[in-house]
Input
Amino acid sequence: MSEKKKLKVATTSLAGCFGCHMSFLDIDERLFTLLEYIEFDRSPLTDIKHVTPGTDIGIIEGGLCNAENVHVLREFRANCTTLIAIGACAINGGLPAQRNHLPLTTILEEVYHTSPGVRNGMIPNDPELPLPLNQVHPIHEVVKIDYFIPGCPPSADAIWKVLTDLLAGKEPSLEHGLMHYD
Amino acid sequence: MSQTFSLDGQSIAFEPGQTILQAAEAAGVFIPHLCYHPEFKPHGSCKLCTVKANGRQTASCTMRAVPGMVVESNTEEINAERRALTQMLFVEGNHFCPSCEKSGNCQLQATAYHLGMMSPHYDHFFPNRAVDASHPEVLLDFNRCILCSLCVRASRDVDGKNVFALSGRGIKTHLIVNAKSGRLTDTDFTLDDKAAQVCPVGVILKKRQGFAVPIGERKYDKAPISAMTEQNKLTEEG
Output
């Protein structure tokens, strides 16, 4: 076992809530088994800031709601052999995409100017802030995604099943009980 | 003595006049479908029930069984096409399962699970469709409509009220309420209507019962749609 090179895995949360990462941690003591096969690269778990070129698997939570999300997604695609979309938001935009029928200016106006209780509001314009996209998009609409783990969040067992299928060189599949969109 | 045809190599008995789908259901063989409902005349529009009958693709809900017919249904080729159709239904509407009261009781979702749909694959339309919350007892969320026309058929043929209709053509087809205002409250629709009970997705929802059954304990959480009898599918509790 020790002879075998460990797979490098990077993870990130874009327009997500980190719920999928929490669910990933819910694989509990199976993390020890997993760590015999993988090591973490860029991830909220390691605080490494950029994906190392040649990373084997990128796991992406959340959709695309701003320019920085797109930038990070492209960095993952450029540096990972296999990309996995995890959770409803990465797969169809999820909760953030429920703003998609509203014009962006209307939303910003309401949040920062006209909603009850707001006085002297100002739409944030610091150049360091990434610009919001007009609509929230799932990640497969911007880069090629190799595998998907649906769920809000996917259960730890579903995540475990897909990862172990991949490590075993099999096409991942989720049977009844593990496949959930909710 | 009843006649038979072959479905994926299995001999299926049928009564003259029965469709392929009716005979398969009666024999306990599942063929995915969304716009078909045993109590209504088939509509043949969702195409999920497509099979190959004697080598030609056809909707099994409208095609009558013929003695000796050879039908393929549960094949990788046909299921891939059904999956693509289901993915198109998902991206054409706004199907956000985690915040939908129908999740777990939804035939579209359960069918997608059955077909192993891991992603919507296509680009999303994110259409802008307003909800109609005007009726005191029922919410209409058009975002989830798949145009199966079951509410149209139920309201017209059973309730005799003609509350719903499909309007527009092609990709612009959409469900409307037959009232001058276009609002459900301005019709004689009630919760007891058959039309209130046939929606396979989360368009026609009873108000004030959200999360009465928690997510994870609902009908299709307990058993896959392929394992359900037609009668179980029709009852909310399963």
Notes: Chain A touches chain B at residues 85, 88, 91-95, 97-98, 100-101, 135, 137-138, 140-141, 145, 147-150, 152, 172-174, 176-177, 179-182 (CB under 8 Å). The radius of gyration of chain A is 18 Å. Chain A has six helices and seven strands. The first strand of chain A starts at residue 7 and ends at 13.
